[in-house]
Amino acid sequence: MKQNNSVTEFILLGLTQDPKRQKMVFVIFFIFYVGTLMGNLLIIMTIKFSRTLGSPMYFFLFYLSLVDTCFSTLIAPRLIVDALSAKKSISYSECLTQVFALHLFGCMEIFVLVLMAMDRYVAICKPLNYATIMSRQVCIFLIVLAWIGSFIHSMAQIILALRLPFSGSNLIDHYCCDMQPLLKLACMDIYVINLLVAINSGALCASSFIILMISYIVILHSLRNHSAEGRKKALSTCTSHVIVVVLSFGPCIFIYTRPPTTFPMDKMVEVLYTIGTPFLNPLIYTLRNAEVKNAMRKLWHVRITSESKR
């Protein structure tokens, strides 16, 4: 049940209080956000309209880019606007909504990365049964299951957040609302709730990361029986996935698997998680994936050709 709170809004202190640095924050993260939107939307449009990218791997990549777009849009615009605002306020309800959406899309990204690793495992280790195991119906079912799991995870976070009473300071030393900054402001003993947050979020990140690393070790071990060309292609794809996994899970584990103590690098780590990773993911997948680059060239060629004929 929602606690009685005298606090109706919070003040986000952001990344810095220095006016000159705030202008730098505005410029830097505006560029990052525009780049994130362009990169992820380009991948989404390429996969949607390309006839050559119909495999389950690109089906999951489509949802990874979609989630990254939503994840970045949830955080970056407010950070950009607040960098030039005198009062960086956010209402209590907006703050809880941000917590819910942050965990919804963050959890969904974790599940999509797990599904992408599962897809690579089946494709490399069980190639004869790949079409049956990873059919279109199965992929759709897995994505729906991932959304349901993410929703349940986010609801658990909101239930915990609603139990926090706020009657003192409303200054959040962060650029967004999340459970850790809110726990520091709560007027109660937060040991049990912090433990539940660590179990709910931290254990999810850590266990998923371990599962992913084990799956990729198994995949790399099975590549011994493949041809040199097959090994090269599989290694290129798996390397991209591993880079994204490390970039996503490293900050996530750091943020959610420890007590609510403050470290100097906390904000920078969360910036990497909430803004850096959505920006880097499309670069990693396009620069290291020849099929995506070729599909993009073909789509642009078709578009340019159709425009020239008008």
TrEMBL record:
It is a multi-pass membrane protein. Keywords: Cell membrane, G-protein coupled receptor, Membrane, Olfaction, Receptor, Sensory transduction, Transducer, Transmembrane, Transmembrane helix. It is found in: Cell membrane; Membrane. PROSITE patterns: G_PROTEIN_RECEP_F1_1, G_PROTEIN_RECEP_F1_2. GO terms for cellular component: plasma membrane. The chain crosses the membrane at residues 24-45, 57-80, 100-118, 138-162, 190-223, 235-256, 268-287. Belongs to the G-protein coupled receptor 1 family. This is Olfactory receptor. It comes from Moschus moschiferus (Siberian musk deer). The lineage of its organism: Eukaryota, Metazoa, Chordata, Craniata, Vertebrata.
